[in-house]
């Protein structure tokens, strides 16, 4: 790996909201071919490899992480979605009674469920959790996975449907009877007799023009993956210019923070030490085949090259060699990571959705080293 790029340390972090991550696809001390829905080769049919230190996403283990996040002061936890992990709604519902104030950022998947039923599920969750539901609208970055769920629409059509889906959801949340006759949904006499006591905050990400258009109409919080600050600032400006409603901004990042920079970079190297060139090549080829613009932007940061992994001060793309979605980590001393967070905050980021391997230990490390 090339030498770490560092920048000035500007002081403690104040103001932003911090969330953690529930690894419902499993957890480990390192990343590999099976990390976060990884696949083996072009056929996508081989079983996912598991290391000797793999931690299965049991209810007991996820409860440990959720309780730790609750006690450490994280505002909420993001739960992933897809064929590689446990269902987000069932998992988070099981954790409501195990936590006290922690919120759950749960996947809302237009096209895989009808909007009025989705609105009812959200309302029920809000009542049972006493207002601790956040909604992450997931359009789907893999056409193949969408087809596997029975959804034939292409990328832009999925975003168009998502806009109509959210129109219906918001109509249902009003508590009034309504009709809707659109391209994708035809509803006569829709009614949610018990609307949510508090309307859930809607999170929505995406880098395509279709995603920005949808976010402008429906996002309470617009999400981006962890690109360099200048690129994130460009996204924020584009969404603000198009926004039809007040919008906040969030970023999804991994963190590897230690007492010293040297310890942190050593930990980063260990995280990918077991990756072979073949595994990296296969994962990069597979990820390039997705129709997600945001995923392509993640891949373009490093091009699959081990010598190009430091893409900005303290921003390392090693996890993205094999992991889809969020592929960058803030790496450095506690003070350096705090400084980089402050820079994102200055660019307009309000909320940080963080993670680290393993997720239980890293939740403590970040909270105790950076938040306190």
Structure report:
Helices cover 39% and strands 17% of the residues. It has helices spanning 59-72, 88-95, 115-129, 143-148, 155-173, 209-218, 229-242, 261-272, 277-288, 293-300, 334-347, 359-371; strands at 17-21, 76-78, 103-108, 133-137, 178-181, 186-190, 201-205, 221-225, 248-258, 310-312, 315-316, 329-333, 351-355. The protein has an 8-stranded parallel beta barrel with strand order 1-2-3-4-7-8-9-13, surrounded by 8 helices. A two-stranded antiparallel ribbon has the order 5-6. The longest helix has 19 residues, at 155-173. The two termini are 31 Å apart.
Write out key terms for the chains shown.
372 residues; single chain; alpha/beta; two-stranded antiparallel sheet
Radius of gyration: 20 Å
| SSE pattern | EHEHEHEHHEEEHEHEHHHEEEHEH
Shape: globular
Our measurement of the CA-to-CA distance between the termini, rounded to an integer number of angstroms, reads 31 Å
What integer is the average pLDDT?
90
Beta strand count: 13
Low-confidence stretches: 1-14, 39-43
């Amino acid at each position: 790996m090339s030498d770490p790029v560092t920048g000035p340390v500007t002081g403690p972090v104040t103001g932003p909201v911090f969330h953690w991550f529930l690894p419902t696809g499993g957890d480990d001390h390192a990343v590999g071919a099976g990390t976060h829905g990884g696949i083996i080769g072009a056929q996508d049919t081989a079983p996912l490899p598991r290391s000797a230190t793999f931690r299965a996403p049991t209810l007991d283990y996820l409860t440990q992480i959720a309780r730790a996040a609750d006690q450490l002061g994280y505002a909420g936890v993001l739960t992933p979605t897809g064929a590689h992990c446990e269902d987000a709604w069932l998992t988070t519902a099981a954790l409501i009674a195990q936590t006290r104030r922690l919120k759950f950022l749960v996947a809302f998947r237009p096209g895989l469920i009808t909007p009025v039923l989705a609105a009812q599920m959200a309302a029920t969750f809000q009542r049972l959790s006493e207002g601790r539901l956040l909604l992450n609208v997931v359009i789907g970055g893999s056409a193949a996975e969408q087809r596997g769920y029975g959804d034939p629409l292409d990328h832009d059509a999925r975003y168009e449907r998502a806009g109509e889906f959210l129109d219906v959801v918001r109509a249902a949340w009003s508590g009034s009877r309504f009709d809707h006759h659109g391209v994708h949904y035809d509803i006569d006499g829709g009614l949610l007799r018990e609307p949510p006591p508090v309307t859930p905050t809607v999170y929505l990400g995406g880098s395509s023009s279709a995603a920005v258009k949808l976010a402008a109409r429906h996002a309470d919080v617009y999400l981006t993956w962890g690109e360099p600050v200048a690129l994130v600032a460009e996204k924020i400006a584009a969404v603000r210019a198009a926004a039809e409603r007040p919008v906040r901004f969030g970023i999804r990042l991994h963190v590897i923070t230690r007492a010293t920079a040297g310890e942190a970079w050593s930990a980063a190297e260990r995280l990918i030490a077991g990756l072979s060139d073949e595994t990296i090549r296969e994962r990069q080829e597979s990820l390039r085949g997705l129709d997600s613009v945001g995923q392509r932007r993640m891949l373009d940061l490093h091009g699959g090259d081990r010598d190009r992994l430091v893409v900005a001060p303290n921003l390392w793309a090693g996890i993205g060699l094999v992991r889809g979605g969020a592929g960058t980590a803030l790496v450095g001393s506690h003070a350096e990571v705090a400084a980089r967070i402050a820079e994102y905050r200055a660019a307009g980021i309000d909320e940080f959705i963080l993670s680290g391997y393993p997720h239980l230990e890293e939740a403590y490390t970040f909270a105790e080293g950076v938040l306190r």
